[in-house]
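@channel sequence for tomorrow's demo:
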Amino acid sequence: MKSEIVTPNGEFGGVSAGVFVQRLSATRRGARLARLLAAQQLRDWGVAATDAVDAVELVVAELASNAVRHGRVPGRDFELRLEPARDHVRIEVSDARAERAPRPAGCPDEGGYGLLLVEALATAWGVRSRCVGKTVWATVPLP
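structure tokens (generated this afternoon):
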């Protein structure tokens, strides 16, 4: 696992903030760790525990879980990126499988509720191609 990279990005909530980037193993454990790291990073940025923090955690958990379940390529990690702004956090999860673009299930009888949850909690979300794979992003508002 590659160590985190935090780059200067001005101030956020009165605290000097940066962009948080972490590569994680494409396993269930890696997805769980992504959620825990996101929660810790929000605390480090001085964001108080609120429903918005819970929303960020849920969105990270869903996008990381999807990266592990649908975007996994053996031997490749996925990447979590959090970028704070004045009134929201941009979440990006990148994996190595470009051909498996996420879509909310029309009739989610056997799963597929996760992206509906992302749609409900985020002000916007989408998919962007990369040289290798794709990035699924979402913006979650903060108080």
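heads up for whoever presents: Residues 8-16 have pLDDT under 50 and may be disordered.
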